[in-house]
Design brief:
Number of domains: 1
Structural class: mainly alpha
Number of strands: 0
Amino acid sequence: MNEAEMNSGIEIPHSQVRLEDGVLHADRAETEFVKAMTHELRTPLNVVIGLCQFLKRDRKTPLQPMQRDAVDRMERNARSLLLTVNHLIGCLRSGHFE
């Protein structure tokens, strides 16, 4: 066996190791992205929903009908957006966006 044949046999395992390292790096990057998205998008939406619920329950300063309609719309839209974000995160975690 000459040197070229010996080196070509060594190259395959090295390139496979580099490929596996790349896959692991991509998996870690995807995991970090999903964690960041979860925190950066879901947390503020949950705060908006909670504040809307608080405003509707506050007995000291009840909302006027127009205010209540606006708060209801805000809560409904925040919940809708949260469902979309949750669906997107679920798809990312399950690998549907590959």
